[in-house]
Amino acid sequence: MAKKPRIVIIGAGMAGLTAANQLYTCTSSKDLFELCVVEGGSRIGGRINTSEFGGDRIEMGATWIHGIGGSPIHKIAQEIQALDSDQPWECMDGFLDEPKTIAEGGFEINPSIVESVSTLFKNLMDFAQGKLHEDSASSEDVDFYKIAIRASKICTSNGGGGYGKLSIGSFLRQGLDAYRDSLRGQEEHQGYGIWTRKLLEEAIFEMHENTQRTYTSAGDLSNLDFAAESEYRMFPGEEITIARGYLSIIEYLASVLPPGLIQLGRKVAQIEWQPEAHKSLENGDATRPVKLHFCDGSIMYVDHVIVTVSLGVLKAEIGQDSGMFNPPLPSFKTEAISRLGFGVVNKLFLQLSPNHVEKGDNTTTNNNFPFLQMAFHPQDSELRHKKIPWWMRRAASLSPIYSNSSVLLCWFAGKEAVALESLTDEEIMNGTATTSSSFLKQPHKVIKSNSHEVCNGNSWGSEVKFTKVLKSKWASDPLFLGSYSYVAVGSSGDDLDTMAEPLPKIGNCESSSLHPLQILFAGEATHRTHYSTTHGAYFSGIREANRLLQHYHGVGV
Ligand SMILES: Cc1cc2nc3c(=O)[nH]c(=O)nc-3n(C[C@H](O)[C@H](O)[C@H](O)COP(=O)(O)OP(=O)(O)OC[C@H]3O[C@@H](n4cnc5c(N)ncnc54)[C@H](O)[C@@H]3O)c2cc1C
Ligand SMILES: *[C@@H]1O[C@H](CO)[C@@H](O)[C@H](O)[C@H]1NC(C)=O
Ligand SMILES: *[C@@H]1O[C@H](CO)[C@@H](O)[C@H](O)[C@H]1NC(C)=O
Ligand SMILES: *[C@@H]1O[C@H](CO)[C@@H](O)[C@H](O)[C@H]1NC(C)=O
Ligand SMILES: *[C@@H]1O[C@H](CO)[C@@H](O)[C@H](O)[C@H]1NC(C)=O
Where does the record locate the signal sequence feature (predicted)? Predict the structure, then answer.
């Protein structure tokens, strides 16, 4: 009796479970493969980690469906009725409207000042993403379009290495300069306490840059490639969170698989594969070319392995002498892995002290802690509040997870996100409370367009206090070593395609005894246009499952 091909999927995250689901549902009636998923951790979901805090369901990892139009995640969520719940959930009311933008020192900034910088920033990003075109722009947008064109031209001519080296960071900065030139003379030196108009604009612009750092995971936007930004695709429609938790999607994908197919606590130490046809198979199972070594010392012979570990894990493995791949990955693979970016983004949840909860209503109100957008003082000067810790200074916002919730959420990126992981809860509560108090405590000095006034009505009124915190730790968890991928300056979309190529390299297998498709690659970082997302991971899982299905269909099994 011929042996069934044995397929092992490494990783029970979105990509791995989607591949398993596809392989299993497409062949279960034919009983074609021996299939299993091996997961190094003690839970399924990977970078999807639905959790609970202060009685509310929250997400430690993937949070949003980025556009519901055409998203396979949204389709599943609808089918399994995961989009409604009696219990409140994170961001159930979307992005809270009407953010309150406050400048360091407690100056509430007039919305018209915030809006002009926010519009500039949005238009610059739309331009970079290929969404802003001169013909479709309204007359006001046309000015921004000219600013953006000028910014990209200046960057290109200064780039030293041409278009491919232009970063989003330098493009944005040129855009801000061009914008300032277009306003030259207007209100330039007007003062508002410690603030001038120019400093305020700078601070608001930086605030948006900080949000962009969390969207992309590029800790430094000058390392985020400009040209690749326009290849990234978003689905149309609103962005929503999943009422029953992102994990409900994962559980659904896993639910069709027979018990035992997913093995937890099975960390792979090494993948021994056969890149050369002439090398005889010296293993105990001569027909299966790949030998998996697990951390517990056990081994397994397989025909195909689908690797879904994060780009962060791959980067760490190729940097080691005896890494995960034996023999090591060929250079076309390791070069793509090294060039692409993989950053750190962390989420911090904070429980407001009940002192702030209005009497008579225990949990549902928070005394209206606002959707606080923080414009930090851009210069390292004595005007800065001394007690605000450095790791808070690039957080863009702090806001309740839904209207009136007493749980607040703050996103961190880059080295601030890394630092957060090793701080104690006390240090975090102290630093965040000091920061938010300094923004909210004083009677607000409202910055209007030409003067500032003191106004008592709007302030939080007392010291902000927190009673507990919960934070994600994506960088220090050895199963992830970061959050999601981005196209770094020096890499391109081609590298994402290279990430997806199976081994041995296509073309090397023909006319030889070499086993094809020994190692396949799926995961968020293998999708050229939807990298960094759950749906990108989903599509990559389908892609690699179909690659194997087509392979076997082709030989008439
Ligand atoms: C903070 C944060 C916020 C995010 N927000 C969003 C969002 O709003 N919307 C969105 O679409 N996406 C978001 N993402 C990205 C999204 O979570 C990921 O793109 C997606 O979940 C990745 O799935 P994956 O299957 O490619 O990888 P993973 O989920 O990383 O799965 C890989 C699995 O491999 C396992 N593994 C690793 N090494 C080994 C080994 N040696 N042996 C065995 N198993 C191993 C890991 O434990 C893991 O379970 C966010 C991510 C983070 C961290
Ligand atoms: C407040 O909490 C108490 C117990 O903790 C509970 O009995 C009461 O119903 C709660 N009140 C409201 C308005 O939620
Ligand atoms: C909080 O930080 C301040 C300095 O920023 C320090 O003086 C104080 O002792 C800290 N408190 C705690 C409880 O750590
Ligand atoms: C939040 O609280 C305010 C006043 O405390 C109230 O007017 C508002 O309706 C509440 N919003 C929600 C969504 O509960
Ligand atoms: C996943 O969530 C749990 C809390 O439910 C937390 O302890 C764990 O650290 C999270 N994982 C990561 C990598 O943040």
Answer: none
